[in-house]
Amino acid sequence: MKAIEHQDFTSNTLDKKEIESDFPILEVSQLAKKESWRKEINRPIYHIHKWWAKRLGSVFRAISLAALSPEKFHTWKNFYIRQDFRGKVVLDPFMGSGTTLGESLKLGCKVIGCDINPISTFLVRQALTRVPESELRSTFAQLEQEVAKEIQQYYQTRDPETGEWIPVLYYFWVKIITTPEGESIPLFSNYVFAKNAYPQKKPKSQIICPNCWNIIEDRFDTTYLPCPHCQTQFNPQQGPAKGQYVYSRSGKRYKIKALIQAQNNPPEHRMYAMLALRANGEKIYLPVKDEDLALFCDAIKRLAREDLPIPTMPVRPGHNTDQARGYNYLQWRDFFNARQLLCLGLLLRAILNIENKAIQEQFICLFSSTLEFNNLFCSFKGEGTGAVRHMFSHHILKPERAPLENSVWGTDKSSGTFATLFESRLIPAKRYLDNPFEISIETDLFGNSIGSHKITASQAINVSLVESWEAFSQQEQAALILNGSSDRLPIPSEAVDVVITDPPYFDFVHYSELSDFFFAWIAPVLKERYSFFRCADSSHFGEVQHNDPRLFAQQLSRVFAECYRTLKYDGLLIFSFHHSRSEGWAAICEAIRASGFKVVAAHPVHAELKVATPKTSVTEPISLDAILVCCKSEEDLNSSVDIIASRMKAERLGKMLESGGIKLSEPDRFVILASQLLVEMSKKSMSFENMNYLLQQQSITTNIVSEADG
Predict the structure, then answer these.
(1) What's the pTM value of the predicted model, to 2 decimals?
(2) Per-residue pLDDT tens for 416-432?
(3) Per-residue pLDDT tens digits for 450-470
(4) DSSP state, 665?
(5) What are residue 425's phi and psi, to 5 degrees?
(6) How far apart are CA 217 and CA 73, in angstroms?
(7) At what angle do helices 643-659 and 666-681 cross, to 10 degrees?
(8) Burial 9-44 (b: 16+ CB within 10 A, else e)
(9) Which residue, 307, 314, 305, 306, is CA-closest to 333?
(10) Distance of CA 136 to the CA centre of its chain
């Protein structure tokens, strides 16, 4: 890993910054695209725990660098050079997973991060906390000795060839519903339950017989199959569940949700298959036998006897939870079967016995991260890839009709278990604090990417975590981590050099409705230590989140106004944003103007992988963010909007990105154009309705022009 030379900008006092006039959108986008393929490997510090809409570290390093450097600094030329912005203070009022904080700390800054969500505050604290790897490993070994075998005894089966007990990696389940006539129907859409992630290359699959429930191995796309065990002939592609309906043996159709709601309880499940691991490393699919069912019953009985730290919190109504509630998942404990509750409870109880509080909290964070891959909302991704599709593949809590049960502690062949996440998430995140590397793209003579390597281009992240401005001001390297609404911060006026953030998305996605899943487990065990865990759930009345654009603008403007107060006179507010609808952009513009800012520059950059879920479900997804650069406004807001100039610049920026291999969708082109119009509109006196109308018209025109070009 290569080390790079050092530059010192601690004495720089020039007013205008590089990002106000220039930003290397192509180079940063190409690097961001590379990072986005394996974000948890390329920026492990931000992936110690689940958070939503995480921004890319390479993009925010470039933003921080350009925001703190003078004009003509040439951000890209200096991207891989160590920087020292000692004394500079960076604020993120919506810190989320802590991307802004981490990237700014790497540049030598002091940072202030605030989030209204307690899960965010907790995970950022854990991400930035330094603990010796040796202590983590010795504590893990202690946990392994104390509780691993106790958990693993519930995840084993007999090898049919040797009769020996072997570990089970995954159990396959299916939801069962009962018709008014008493017929029990499994909610299979088809009977192919396991196949390779690339089935055209490796067509072998596992199929369950709908009659005898034995496992048959055949092609993933076969349409006729006689069961060799019971001679039943069936089409593996046609199960009884089709969309929102299920069909009985007689062909009668029922609405699935209506049948479930009539039961007043979450749906029943049937365990029908296992993927086990032989001593020689061979993975084998096996049907469920009586002994396997008895083992599960043992877990049910023990759970009833034990006093374990498992959730007692209800699932509150909300846009992101109503689908789960519609399936009668009314308590967070309902998201787990009895064996999962038992084993997770045993694990958490053992973690709570760790005496060193700093180490204990690292393992609580790891435990919480493990929950995402160990519940009844997970499913099987397939062979040849990470096997477990976690529960937050969608922004809603979507009940899985054929859930996958993971093995909680796991083996070295597992995916998404406590033991594997310890090695793949927690340890790399701690090592990154010592060696915060960057990814550098390797190219051939023609500029085509042929690989990448890591470069050490930052100082180690070694920072004091403080909880007050007084303590913050006395430390040379400090991170002030706050919980609460950012519309009122315990920070003096004009104390911050730059605000860099990624505000909540204007829409229905309420992160607190989703984060309650983790809160239900860890708040009860941490509430005596942290006041932000003493509330009923992870929501807060001050959340900036609404699907009404005017209300969203009002909420956001209150936070931006506080940023205005805390910023120095020449400080910048910089944030990333994208939206496919005009009212989203009009809302952002209204929030900017109402808080006393104007947009001076807008830079489009690659933000998310187009094939990522839930983007794959969108016909034309957005992969770009607009980086909006705002300064304090003192101008008269009366001149007209220069639409032609905005369109010309948007076209030029789009062509620049495309020239470097960044493919743009029509919504991407709208993001570019809307952001350039925002530069104009933020300086004018326009009503929300007029801004929205102007953006709508330009969106229509953009589509017409693009179709003509095509």
Answers:
(1) 0.93
(2) 999 999 999 999 999 99
(3) 788 899 999 899 999 999 999
(4) -
(5) -120, -55
(6) 62
(7) 140
(8) beeeeeeebbbbebbbbbbbbbbbbbbbeebeebbb
(9) 314
(10) 25
